[in-house]
Amino acid sequence: MPRKANSRLKDPELYEELRDDGASKQKAARISNAAAKEGRSAIGRRGGKAANYEEWTVAKLRARAKEIGLTGYSHQRKSELIDSLRNS
Asked: Which of 18-32, 42-56, 72-86 holds the top average pLDDT?
């Protein structure tokens, strides 16, 4: 009998949602399995520990804008850069 595709997935619905949102196969599988094991609310509370954009220097903000492919950031002020990064 053939094995089911993605038979190791503990939460296939969440996996598919994450894949539709653009997550890699590995990331989607890792998150969906952790959510099934610990509960979705526990996974959501983890969150990132990155500093707020307001604490970044303009040079770092411009580097991040370049990294994600934004255009027109070189003439923007810090507050405009932050808005652009948050809304990209």
From this structure: 72-86
- Cα 80 off chain centre by: 22
Euclidean distance between CA atoms 16 and 22, whole angstroms: 10
If one counts the domains in the chain, the total is 2
Q: Are residues 17 and 42 in the same domain?
A: yes
**Nearby residues of 10 by Cβ (< 8 Å), 6 or more positions away:** 32, 33, 35, 36, 37
Please indicate, yes or no, if residue 29 is contained in any of the structural domains: yes
- Claim: this prediction has a pTM higher than 0.70: no
| Residue 3 domain flag | no
Q: Among 85, 63, 86, which residue's Cα sits nearest to residue 74?
A: 63
What range does the domain containing 24 cover? 12-46
Inter-residue contact 10 to 36 (CB < 8 Å): yes
12-20 mean pLDDT: 87
